[in-house]
Amino acid sequence: MLQQNHVSIKDFKPISIIGDGSFSNVILAKKLDTGELTAIKIVKKETLTTDHLKEQIQMELEIFSTSDNPFITPLYYAFQDSDNLYLSLKYCPGGELFNLLGKQNFFTEEVARFYAAQVLLALEYLHTKNYVYIDLKPENILIDSNGYIKLTDFGLSRRLKNGIAGHNPSGTLEYMSPEMFSGNGYGIATDWYALGCLIFEMITGNPPFRSQNQEKLIDKILTQEPNFPTNMSKSLIDLLKKLLNKDPKSRL
Fold first, then answer.
1. Half-sphere exposure of residue 216: CA atoms within 13 angstroms, side-chain side
2. Are 169 and 148 in contact (CB under 8 A)?
3. How many CA atoms lie within 13 A of 54 on its CB side?
4. Which of 55, 132, 210, 226 has its CA 20 to 30 A from that of 177?
């Protein structure tokens, strides 16, 4: 839960860099008065050169500061100085689900079910608040000290307006829903498609559609059906077919 106490970066002792991106980086730090570990996302103000980028950080702050769900990363403090914006978030020592999946190559259906159920509850919560997450992928799912997931990174999330979250493709291409390329807008159903992609990748080690060529990948998303492994259970295949339905109105 966001705390209102006035703090600055001087109240924290940096320990290490745990994430690095184009517009921000994340450091592991210790709060000096309590000794509590926190992950601090540092956004350089000079990189916020467009209204779109400013809207992204505002949306992320809005969701982090108002969310009350056990599977969404808690925000402790938000503050700034002349150069940077800072978001002090719960530190998740288990790292990204992406790294765990990379080490194990794939999960059993039981393990995938454990993580997918938590992601579902986080998405369902966001939808009740009229947000569409949009950028679901293993890199945006953290694992806390108890082994449970925490959804993070809401920079691409959007608020629903008349059932529509956006009209232009957004997110990670392998996880984009077919309706993102229609020009007619997309809404909550795009998150359920992405959940299908996530479950498929957890089970097989890869998303349902892949290609080094962007146009070919988009064509696969629009026209092809996933190739389900022979050892996948019938109930899981049935679930994935319903989540990966190309028609958002018919999608589970």
1. 4
2. no
3. 5
4. 55
Tens of pLDDT, residue by residue over 77-106, are: 999 999 999 999 999 999 999 999 999 999
Distance CA 118, CA 57 (A): 25
**Region of 183 on the Ramachandran plot (φ > 0 left; ψ -120 to 50 alpha; else beta):** left
Residue in 20, 135, 153, 247 annotated catalytic:
135
**Per residue in 110-144, is it b (16+ CB within 10 Å) or e — as a string?**
eebbebbebbbbbbebbbeeebbbbbbbbebbbbb
Distance CA 49, CA 127 (A): 30
Give tens-digit pLDDT for 9-55: 999 999 999 988 777 899 999 999 999 999 999 999 998 988 888 99
Within 8 A by CB and 6+ apart from 195, the residues are 116, 119, 120, 123, 136, 243
* Cα-Cα-Cα-Cα dihedral sign, residues 15, 16, 21, 23: positive
To the query of whether residue 153 is one of the catalytic residues in this protein, the response is: no
